[in-house]
Write a structure and sequence with these properties.
Layout (H helix, E strand, L loop, with lengths): L9 H4 L27 H5 L18 H18 L5 H19 L4 H6 L4
Amino acid sequence: MARRVSLPSADDLFRPTTEPAPAPQPAPEPAAPPAGAATSAGAAARRTSGRVKHDEKMTVYVTSAELLELESARLRLRAELGTAVDRGRLVREAVALALADLDENGADSAIARRLSGEG
């Protein structure tokens, strides 16, 4: 007579093996701008999302050289500053910086100058 083997259920196989991650800490408040500096509500309120689950996705195509520069910047941040970030977070931070500069400086921002061919 053949013997039947008892196998674990899917719930047993895929159960969490570590404790849940703690809730993310709120980002520190940015330092007050110097006296006389112009700020807009959009620039002051713009914060990157950091390491959270993102619901939206955007595909960006880059050249091989641009990808190597991005990866080089990521490795440089890790080597020189001890800041380990992935490429997605690095891109989100760069976009946030560019948008804050655009909010604050408008046509004089670096992104506006570059896109208009001046920079």
